[in-house]
């Protein structure tokens, strides 16, 4: 940190991976992640109040990324609604692709099932699970980055896993329960 403030480029570079994971989990569409990350960078640089507690930087960045992702989703939704109102005719459906091998089909169905279950979770739970399992973070790393205590993270992870299991059970009716 110099006399003018922190090196925001370096700060954003250090936190880029996990912030992208959070944004991706919130958007659920990979093409908007770069745009949202640019908005996060602009918001970081444009912030007017100095960061009083550098230890809470991760939590602040997390909240900023979530806010920017929500704004992006709102904007994209308005755009889709406008396109839907303006569309007069849809192109004819293309021929269905040839059937895939069974293993690919099962993998695709399983991924879709988990995505649907994650979509039904509260966003905070989905974020935690994405960071824990997608980034491979420990509870301590999650606590440091999100600015909360390790016991709180462990409790949140436990609740998120239980909710995910319940959602999977409600979607399939016969999901076998086991701990990851």
UniProtKB/TrEMBL annotation:
<keyword id="KW-0731">Sigma factor</keyword>
<dbReference type="InterPro" id="IPR039425">
    <property type="entry name" value="RNA_pol_sigma-70-like"/>
</dbReference>
<dbReference type="InterPro" id="IPR007627">
    <property type="entry name" value="RNA_pol_sigma70_r2"/>
</dbReference>
<dbReference type="InterPro" id="IPR036388">
    <property type="entry name" value="WH-like_DNA-bd_sf"/>
</dbReference>
<dbReference type="InterPro" id="IPR014284">
    <property type="entry name" value="RNA_pol_sigma-70_dom"/>
</dbReference>
<dbReference type="InterPro" id="IPR013249">
    <property type="entry name" value="RNA_pol_sigma70_r4_t2"/>
</dbReference>
<keyword id="KW-0805">Transcription regulation</keyword>
<dbReference type="Pfam" id="PF04542">
    <property type="entry name" value="Sigma70_r2"/>
</dbReference>
<dbReference type="InterPro" id="IPR013324">
    <property type="entry name" value="RNA_pol_sigma_r3/r4-like"/>
</dbReference>
<protein>
    <submittedName>
        <fullName>Sigma-70 family RNA polymerase sigma factor</fullName>
    </submittedName>
</protein>
<comment type="similarity">
    <text>Belongs to the sigma-70 factor family. ECF subfamily.</text>
</comment>
<feature type="domain" description="RNA polymerase sigma factor 70 region 4 type 2">
    <location>
        <begin position="112"/>
        <end position="164"/>
    </location>
</feature>
<dbReference type="Pfam" id="PF08281">
    <property type="entry name" value="Sigma70_r4_2"/>
</dbReference>
<feature type="domain" description="RNA polymerase sigma-70 region 2">
    <location>
        <begin position="13"/>
        <end position="78"/>
    </location>
</feature>
<keyword id="KW-0804">Transcription</keyword>
<dbReference type="InterPro" id="IPR013325">
    <property type="entry name" value="RNA_pol_sigma_r2"/>
</dbReference>
<keyword id="KW-0238">DNA-binding</keyword>
